[in-house]
Write a structure and sequence with these properties.
Elements lengths: L2 H23 L4 H6 L2 H16 L4 H23 L30
Helix pairs in contact: 1-3, 3-4
Length: about 110
């Protein structure tokens, strides 16, 4: 199967999962959680396809390793900030002002 078709299928499955999970949990930030993980899957699909074709896939593997390292770092930071924790129903961790928290303080907040 062509790797682009596999990536499209993975993207469709991820989109359907996010939609169903947001309906069940009433938490709309499932895309944010998967955005830290799914790009790694995409790039490894292409790297594995390059390796199985028998061509020189050195650049693809290096790129996959770099993306994996970057996403691992980003997931670690997001995990420390609590991005993967469960949120109470109906709340959105991305927009605290929308759920009753005071607006952000700063030079533009006037």
């Amino acid at each position: 199967m062509h790797p682009l078709l596999v990536v499209i299928i993975v993207a469709a499955v991820a989109a359907v999962f996010c939609w169903i999970a947001s309906l069940v949990t009433e938490d709309t930030s499932w895309v944010d959680r998967l955005w830290s993980i799914v790009p790694v899957i995409y790039v490894w699909i292409f790297a594995i396809a390059g390796l199985t074709d028998g061509a020189d896939a050195t650049r693809l593997v290096v790129m996959a390793l770099l993306v994996t390292a970057r996403r691992r770092s980003a997931c670690g930071r997001r995990g420390v900030r609590g991005a993967f924790r469960r949120v109470p129903r109906g709340r959105d961790r991305r927009r605290p002002a929308a759920v009753g928290f005071p607006p952000a303080q700063g030079p533009r907040a006037a």
